[in-house]
Model the fold of this input.
Amino acid sequence: MNKTNSNKQTLMDITNKINALASQYADYTANNLSKLVQIKSLSMGEKEVQLELKKQMEAAGFDEVRIDGLGNVIGRIGSGKKILAIDAHMDTVDTGQLKNWDFDPYSGLIKDGFVHGRGTVDQEGGAAAFVTSGKILKELGFDKDLTIYFVGSVMEEDCDGLCWKYLVEEEGLKPDFAISTEPTNLNIYRGHRGRMEIGVHFYGVSCHGSAPERGENAIYKAAKAALEIEKLNDRIKADDFLGKGTVTISEIKSGSPSLCAVADYAYFHLDRRLTWGETKESAVAEIEAIVKGMNAKVEVLYYEETAYTGLKYGMEKYYPTWKIEESHPMVQTGVRSFQKLFNQAPVVDKWTFSTNGVTINGYYGIPLIGFGPGNEVMAHAPNEKVPVEHLVKASAFYAAFAYELAENLSK
Done:
């Protein structure tokens, strides 16, 4: 048997072992996720869930596990020259009205082939799966020229990508390749629209409400601009893969000296989704054109909050659009890994919502794909649950991908 055929045979043997171990550890993975879900972990309140994740990584035999200054859990396996990072954010949104849930959101109930609860899909399920992947890699004696960092990141729900800005710029962790474990319904995703948050301030002149003609009502300016923004949404460009950009007003406020006075101030907040080819500058210019002559100010907002570690950190609320081509080696490595594991071709698609990919690829250009357990329609929704089968397949995929990538790099 020649060397190429021998390598193929070895890789196929490893793939079969990965599948078998992932199935063998189905209960282990589900129970680990259940433990994570039982810990409420809103943005900036992730401390306890991070300690639990760290404990799980250590028990799985990771080579190194630590928590950085922002509160991200970083587990390492291997010590090769090239770096693969696998990311799962550990913060979740709140539950909303409990009457909309059929079960306790923090029960971590394992029943009828699902793990139930807030965060099972968005997105602690990805973390539970990659803990099992790490365990599998260690049991198989992974010794390739590749370092794998498994990152349980923080504050994504509040400010997607902030955690990876910290990892790259403050920790010096800039991987060569990355996988996001955000929910993809076990499809391979290769991009999503970007987004930004824009504030628009309108300034008027107050006067007594009995004679409004003496003043200049800021609310009327805002109202006229709002109608034009509604029209703008209809003409924003579209991309064949990512779809259409959008803009909507999500909040409006006003101020005046009295309820018997003309408003001298108004403000609205814009949620702007950016398709391919749109930029921060082009989006701002569109709004500035609408409010021209209205004595208004347009600004891209800034996020700055204190992590559970006590560190204050921030970034501009501009989250770039990103995509990589289906022919990209990163995507094709994922496709081959999927086919070898599951004997079928994967669906290659995109997310509707935004992820940490906005910094990983959008800012830093790191080749990135998404593969995660659960369907994104369950994200932020009541009765959130993830199939145990998805957890099993995701844990197999991450381990198989590491071997497939290492094999490609050695050629």
Summary: The chain has two domains: 3-192+321-409, 194-306.
